[in-house]
């Protein structure tokens, strides 16, 4: 089976592509390799994927619709699309809103247009976000909850992607599934995510920002569990409902962890105390996220298995090795 993975140099995209390659799939990867964060990390991920003979890579900006259309015309054997490319981050959307329109809206539309012209397409799976639930105070977050009051532009674009996907599924009978991811972490993660920011601050001995004085709870979801969820949903083709082959699922844990507890576990893994800079709530943030995963469990057996102690231990092991902290410690001790 030939699978297209967009955002293939990103955290989840890389992890999903590697899992697909290891189980024998042919993977075509797309990524713009933008400079939202360290391009070196993206290239390191890509180098691992390029070691597989069944992997090919194309550097493409999905907002360039003519380029994307040309790509799809020359790749008519694609059977599955896993669309993970997006401009991520809630806080960055306050600084650079047009990046979200280009990547999340125009880019998503380019993929939908390309998908509808693929005669071999069996399923389009794309990344949504738990951010679409906004300030919903009814926990856990259920797929059928109202999601019409996003608290950030990022969340608004992700909800827009869901609506566009439903429209295309209804119009062109494309099987489309959206996955609402909840705070993914683990090895090869993004530098703008909490585990990464906190680990670096702890090891560098600098203050780390902790918003809402740490009174926040998150559905921290380990990357391997997320990957299993994505692989599980690929063969779960949506059934027709009111003329659309469309479905949505939560991909997260069914319990939340306090942010200060998350930091405590990270301190234990690093054997170093953190220097906390307790700050007010940031615009666009929410106090707590908890996923109702009952539909995901029932439909394709999704059940996260990794607790934060194990997940953060794995993350720290990778982080310390990749960024050479052990080598730095040895040099300082000489």
Task: Draw up the topology in text.
Blueprint: E1 2-6, H1 11-22, E2 26-31, H2 39-49, E3 55-59, H3 65-73, E4 80-83, H4 97-116, E5 123-129, H5 153-172, E6 176-181, E7 184-185, H6 194-204, E8 207-211, E9 217-218, E10 221-222, H7 223-234, E11 240-241, E12 244-251, E13 257-258, H8 259-270, E14 275-279, H9 294-300, H10 308-322, H11 325-333
Parallel strand pairs: 1-2, 1-4, 2-3, 4-5, 5-6, 6-12, 7-10, 8-14
Antiparallel strand pairs: 9-13, 11-12
Helix pairs in contact: 1-2, 1-7, 3-4, 4-5, 6-8, 8-10
Name the CATH class of the largest domain: Alpha Beta
| CATH T-level topology of the largest domain | Rossmann fold
How many separate structural domains?
A: 2
The overall average pLDDT, rounded, is 93
Could you describe the largest sheet, including whether it forms a barrel? 8 strands, mixed
Uncertain stretches: 329-334
Whole-number radius of gyration? Answer: 20 Å
Q: What gap, in angstroms, lies between the N and C termini?
A: 53 Å
Estimated helix fraction: 40-55%
Task: Report the strand count.
Answer: 14
């Amino acid at each position: 089976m030939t699978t297209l993975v967009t955002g293939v140099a990103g955290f989840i995209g890389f992890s999903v592509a590697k899992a697909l390659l290891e189980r024998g799939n042919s993977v075509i990867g797309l990524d713009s390799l933008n400079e939202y964060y360290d391009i070196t990390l993206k290239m390191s991920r890509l180098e691992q994927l390029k070691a597989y003979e069944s992997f090919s890579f194309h550097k493409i900006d999905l907002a360039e619709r003519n380029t994307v259309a040309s790509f799809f015309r020359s790749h008519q054997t694609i059977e599955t699309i896993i669309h993970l490319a997006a401009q991520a981050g809630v806080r960055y959307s306050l600084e650079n809103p047009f990046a979200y329109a280009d990547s999340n809206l125009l880019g998503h539309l380019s993929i939908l247009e390309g998908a509808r012209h693929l005669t071999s397409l069996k399923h389009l799976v794309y990344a949504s976000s738990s951010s679409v639930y906004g300030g919903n105070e009814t926990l856990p977050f259920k797929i059928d909850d109202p999601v019409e009051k996003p608290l950030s532009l990022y969340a608004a674009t992700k909800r827009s992607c869901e609506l566009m996907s439903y429209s295309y599924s209804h119009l062109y009978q494309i099987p489309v599934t959206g996955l609402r991811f909840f705070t993914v972490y683990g090895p090869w993660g993004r530098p703008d995510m909490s585990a990464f920011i906190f680990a670096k601050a702890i090891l560098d001995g600098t203050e780390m920002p902790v918003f809402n004085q740490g009174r926040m709870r998150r559905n921290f979801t380990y990357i391997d569990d997320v990957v299993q969820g994505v692989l599980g949903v690929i063969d779960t083709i949506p059934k027709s409902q009111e003329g659309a082959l469309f479905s949505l699922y939560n991909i997260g844990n069914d319990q939340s962890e306090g942010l200060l507890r998350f930091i405590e576990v990270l301190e234990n893994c690093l054997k170093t105390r953190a220097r906390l800079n307790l700050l007010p709530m940031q615009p666009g943030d929410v106090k707590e996220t908890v996923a109702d995963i009952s539909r995901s469990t029932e439909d394709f057996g999704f059940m996260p298995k990794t607790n934060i102690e194990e997940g953060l231990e794995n993350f720290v092991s990778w982080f310390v090795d990749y960024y050479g902290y052990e080598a730095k410690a040895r040099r300082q001790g000489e």
